[in-house]
Fold this protein.
Amino acid sequence: VKGPRRTGVRVGLVGSAFMGRAHSFAWANVASVFGEVSRPELVAVCSRDRGRAAELAGRYGWGESEEDWRRLVERADIDLIDVCTPGALHKEISVAALQAGKHVLCEKPLANGLTEAVAMVAAAQEAWEAVGAQAVVGFNVRRFPAIRLAKDVLSGAGTLRHVRASYLQDWLVDPEFPMTWRLDRSQAGSGALGDLASHLIDLAQYITGQQIFEVSSLMQTFVAQRHVAAASSGLSATSGADLGHVTVDDAVAFVSRFADGPVGAFEATRFATGHRNSLRIEVNADDATVGFDIERPNELVVYRPDGGLEGFRCVNVTEGAHAYMQAWWPPGHVLGWDHSFIHQARDLLIGIVEGEKVRPDFADGLQVQRVLDAVERSARAKQWQTVQESEPSYGNHVLND
Ligand code: SOE
């Protein structure tokens, strides 16, 4: 007996490296986990490296592989363009896709600079008004059940005082590690700042529901020259003969003030020996503290007054009552990093069907971009900098969604 046939959103993916794989995995599995969404159609994957696109197509079930992203944007049988390229291409691809009336999911950070991000928000706004096109930024860390719980706990916990967040990696400690696109400003926009601290900024603003409005920062490049990579994929690479100049930061640290009073301390680096991928965030409110570490993704550390039994407790965020968990396994049967991409795909597909705007949208991405910009200005000037005011039309964008 055949089940009812439902038509799913038809997806075209641009980019076949690390994020291309993570997103492919999500599109391929989202409907198996979340029964409420129709199975998306994996129409075509595109990469400058045709062989890699073909390989990804074979592995995850993309119908076709392409070399030129424009071919995807032109196709009438694609509803959504998923942008998993280096930042330098985000604007061109996203704007073209939105102008063609397609939904867009774009990897973070939204763009390599403010001007591009502002143009992307304008295109998103027009496409939303014209055809209800979604324009979502891939801040996947928001989609961990523990982050949802952190936000819930804080919403009833009194005045917020501190945000303490760090994103520590160590894949550049070896000076022989080659120069990949992530170390080239013209490709990546910035280094640890855009790649890692952007996650922290989005999370901090999301969890607290408050915007960062001023920052004081420093940025450092420890190794200024590296051999240019002959080949690279994700965070691995092999060296070529030529020497290249590293044009991004290896590490960044900044303090900040949020709109309603809390203070923030942020650090992101690719030189923290032993820390492979450690994203930590802690928020102190008057009546509670919450702490999350992405290397222990199923846990939320919570402190709350409890009549003499207070102390930091580790909550296993795997109960059916926790965000997304109803669709997964029985309590205690844990999830990993990749699941956040499945959650992202689910939320986007539901938003498309229901016509509800999915967050974080491009305007949220622009707000993060403004903070990144202020951090760079502050490091350059060695002075506090104000986060540039939002454009008037997006000035009331509420972060609490
Ligand atoms: C590499 O530094 C990276 O893959 C980032 O680009 C991702 O955003 C982060 O989630 C993991 O590290």
About this structure: The two ends are 42 Å apart (CA to CA). Confidence is low (pLDDT under 50) at residues 390-401. The chain is about 30% helix and 25% strand.
